[in-house]
Design a protein that fits this description.
The chain folds into 3 domains: 53 residues, Winged helix-like DNA-binding domain superfamily/Winged helix DNA-binding domain (Arc Repressor Mutant, subunit A, Orthogonal Bundle); 209 residues, 2-Layer Sandwich (BirA Bifunctional Protein, domain 2); 49 residues, SH3 type barrels. By secondary structure, it is α+β, with helices and mostly antiparallel strands. The chain is globular, with a radius of gyration of 21 Å. The protein has 10 helices and 14 strands. Helix 1 crosses helix 3. It has a 7-stranded mixed beta sheet with strand order 3-4-5-9-8-7-6, sandwiched between helices. It has a 5-stranded antiparallel beta sheet with strand order 13-12-11-10-14, with no helix packed on it. The two termini are 42 Å apart. It binds biotin (BTN). Biotin binds next to helix 5, strand 5, strand 8 and strand 9. The site of biotin (BTN) has 20 residues, from helix 5, strand 5, strand 8 and strand 9.
Length: 329
């Protein structure tokens, strides 16, 4: 992407017309540079109105992420912990950013690193999939959390993060949201948000989780068409342009509460609540295992580590949250 593309969009974020000459003057660069940047903006799927004699206008600019607004919307526990929040214009993947910078000292969660991006150019989803989003149309962020216990004690972590997202959505009166095991967030049957957790550290010693969250806010038709599954976004659901900063503030507060409780009590503490949000509880489903084999059964809760119970032709078995996918019959 052209390095002037996002700065120009920030300039046009006032919704007013800006002439080419004033843009050139502002950035002290050539006409050719600006025209390359405008091509790049177009390639992002962003439409600018161009009027002869007036210049360019971004009629429906995004509400940019702003760390002050996010932090003002934190609701709890901020006296105990401190969020180190970085907002980037563009990055390959916020998870990769935190994983690459693991060496930054973080033995205790007194500083919790969070990175959010306006645009991810190589967002990653579960099972090696791509996570698609465009500039400002989603909330894409990652948070790093240090655990004193090893990776083996972290089963169920991704499920509790799903609970945090559901709690926040419900608190904003967004109804009919549910979870699909292990951690997809659905609105009816369409995917609204996803979670990608990547663990580093020792099996028994200490460990670190990079928790990546993507929530669709206002996906373009181009992005929707690229995604090979039913997706939705908060604008489609509510008809409103919800401020990502407000949701991020609320979500960071909820994540903090939930991670502290998860460390203390483990997944078992959340089991009942998780099942209450499960879209497929009691439903007949197919489960595709990593080896490609497919199991048919009726969903019958989860166990204390977050494994899914299915009642199958050969009995009631549990399946762990590895590379499995679930679809309703
Ligand atoms: C999934 O449902 O497949 C998980 C999607 C997770 C997407 C988020 S967006 C922020 C973070 N950075 C990434 O590259 N992925 C996660």
């Amino acid at each position: 992407m052209n390095i002037y593309a996002i700065p120009i969009l920030r300039l046009l974020g006032d919704g007013k017309f800006h002439s080419s000459a004033s843009i050139i003057e502002h950035f002290q660069c050539s006409r050719r540079t600006i025209s390359k940047a405008l091509e790049s903006i177009n390639a992002l799927g962003i439409h600018l109105t161009k009027l002869r004699g007036k210049g360019y206008c971004w009629e429906r600019p995004i509400l940019w992420l702003n760390s002050d607004v996010v932090l003002r919307n934190l609701t709890s526990n901020i006296n105990l912990r401190f969020f180190d929040l970085i907002i980037l214009d563009s990055i390959d993947s916020t998870n990769d950013f935190l994983l690459k910078n693991l060496k930054i000292q973080q033995e205790k969660n007194t500083h919790i690193f969070v990175v959010a991006a306006e645009l991810q150019t190589a967002g990653r989803g579960r099972l090696g999939r791509t996570w698609y989003s465009g500039l400002g149309d989603s909330l894409t962020f990652s948070l790093r959390w240090h655990f004193n216990h090893g990776i083996s004690a972290l089963s169920g972590l991704s499920l509790v993060i799903g609970i945090a997202i559901i709690r926040v959505l419900i608190s904003f009166s967004i109804k009919d949201v549910s979870l699909k095991w292990p951690n997809d967030i659905l609105f009816h049957r369409s995917k609204l948000a996803g979670i990608l957790i990547e663990l580093r550290g020792e099996v028994l010693g200490s460990s670190c989780a990079v928790i990546g969250v993507g929530i669709n806010f206002n996906l373009s038709n181009k992005i929707k068409a690229t995604i090979e599954q039913e997706v939705t976004d908060l604008f489609t659901i509510t008809g409103e342009y919800i401020d990502r900063n407000v949701i991020l503030g609320a979500l960071l507060s909820e994540l903090l509460d939930i991670l502290i409780a998860f460390e203390k009590y483990g997944f078992v503490h959340f089991k009942k609540e998780w099942v209450s949000y499960h879209a497929f509880e009691g439903k007949r489903v197919y489960l595709t295992l990593p080896n490609g084999s497919v199991i048919e059964g009726v969903v019958d809760g989860i166990n204390d580590t977050g494994e899914l119970f299915l009642i199958t032709a050969v009995g009631r078995n549990s399946y762990n949250a590895g590379d499995v996918s679930l679809r309703i019959k």
